[in-house]
Design goal:
The structure is a homodimer. Chain A folds into two domains: about 1-45; about 45-255, Rossmann fold (3-Layer(aba) Sandwich). In chain A, about 55% of the residues lie in helices and about 10% in strands. Chain A contains 13 helices and seven strands. The two termini of chain A are about 35 Å apart. In chain A, about 50% of the residues are buried.
Chain lengths: ~300, ~300
């Protein structure tokens, strides 16, 4: 693709054509010279989007909550993009029918852009690709970008925590606050939502969560604990209000800049690490031979690693 | 510590003293010259342990199942070590009271060794440290090593999948099989257990799971789906039998060697990546300055990463 084609693509994407946005994102996920060129061309337009992370254990209702948030944010006139970070599964092919149907409620709306990101195939991994894609969406005038991460694992938690505002969802009877603490998601939440709050145990889960939050020490912002029934849209306005309050606090406290810096720093680190992985990929045969040497006792992993550095 | 002290420590650990085993593991987690020396000294004794991964979403009963497995494996005369891979949380301090109490049932038994591994502070990260610690336990005559990983995230799933036999737990009403597929844990299981099978929906979850497994293509080993109530010890003998059957299949098919090789390869990769991270840590100030440059539009992340490689 020529530079002229890149600018045409950028013009189309900034003009609001969702297919052009999708094409631009694919180009940028791949990395390479065109990705750099596109990112540089987009740079003047970016820097205003507010990034919301939505995370929690499987089954707490992340997709439903995201869908309800889209509706509420649209009614405030925001343009909303969603990045769904799903581990790819050979069984499900990544996206599930139920979620697809739910998301189709927004499919006629040009102010909503939804993209599923697979876990693999990005230069520097998902952790590096996500901020790049956010920058594209930001430059295409989406003022809210929601990153929905499934699960509670280390890498997903890291992606969610690079958001400006991180929403942690729980559901009553899903193992409760103690399980959340165990999964390591308590410390990353800026706003906590006990979803499915019409179920038994919602008050207990909220209380337990507040108690655990009170045990922590918070500088300037203490995460609120809200209750919602996302499937019915109940409590979602309060969630949007809490996100706005957090956004205002970020701006006042200077934390907004800090979070942007952290996101950039993490992106650079992921690119450096990604390059190290690529160098290892090239030396795959040598790695296999050294692995056999370790298995058969001719060397040890430290020595093998030193030879590959 | 001198070489003589290292050999004394190894002798003590191999003699069955749990405190010496714990000290030896700490030494090896840290990396460095003594870690290498210890690993080399241990090499002749290792290579027999069977490694079992236990994973699943929070709340499915991983700790309870692990505890029941310990009891069953001990009754078969096995020496059992458990590595509990918990993300460290400032709220919980890593380990939770309930789990500690549960594990204390085995505390008087010298044939059981339990260690909680935090997510940070290992050279090359948890993915690199885990196989090293397994090798120590293996050399100290633990013939079964159980790795219990919390959550369903990418890194935890990778750790579980480096086991010889990977046990995936589900519970009815926890979001069921579809959620498991979404979380990406279906493809890593060698044995599936629907725990809390006395609850409503256990049969439906097992059926759905079997159906999803039937959709996959399996070479030589099709993962069985079992039901258990780990808290009462029900169904645990069948789980142990399935693990033994899988172990036999691994040996016959040559997969045992392949899995060991994969574990070694992953450990080497993690060490190389860990070294790249360490080099970045040393250049932390430069990284921070480059991040500000990206934020303020003077450079882009690709250029910044290239300067740090």
């Amino acid at each position: 693709m020529t530079s002229t084609a890149v600018s045409a693509l950028i013009d189309g994407a900034r003009g609001g054509d969702p297919r052009q946005v999708a094409r631009l994102i694919s180009r940028i996920e791949d990395g390479g010279a065109q990705a750099r060129e596109s990112l540089q061309a987009l740079a003047p337009y970016a820097g205003r989007a507010h990034v919301i992370g939505v995370t929690g254990a499987p089954g707490v209702g992340k997709s439903t909550t995201t869908s309800a948030l889209i509706t509420a944010l649209r009614s405030h006139g925001h343009r909303v993009a969603v990045l769904a970070v799903d581990p790819s599964s050979p069984f499900s092919g990544g996206a599930l029918l139920g979620d697809r149907i739910r998301m189709q409620a927004h499919s006629g709306d040009d102010g909503v852009f939804i993209r599923s990101m697979a876990s693999r195939g990005h230069l520097g991994g998902l952790a590096a690709a996500t901020p790049r894609v956010i920058r594209v969406l930001d430059a295409c005038d989406f003022d809210i970008v929601i990153i929905e991460t499934v699960g509670v694992g280390q890498s997903e938690v890291e992606i969610a925590s690079t958001a400006d505002t991180c929403l942690v969802l729980l559901a009553p009877g899903m193992g409760d606050g103690v399980q959340a603490a165990k999964a390591g998601i308590l410390e990353i939440g800026d706003v906590f939502v006990v979803n499915k709050a019409d179920r038994d145990g919602a008050d207990a889960t909220a209380r337990e969560l507040r108690h655990m939050i009170d045990l922590g020490s918070w500088a300037g912002w203490t995460p609120p604990v809200l209750k919602a029934v996302a499937a019915q849209g109940t409590g979602i306005d309060e969630v949007v209000d809490a996100i706005s309050a957090h956004q205002a606090w970020l701006a006042e406290s200077g934390q907004a800049r800090q979070r942007r810096l952290r996101r950039i720093r993490d992106e650079i680190i992921a690119l450096v690490i990604g390059a190290a992985r690529e160098r290892l990929d090239i030396r795959r045969q040598e790695l296999e031979a050294l692995s056999v040497d370790v298995l058969e006792g001719r060397t040890d992993p430290f020595e093998a690693a030193a030879r590959l550095e």
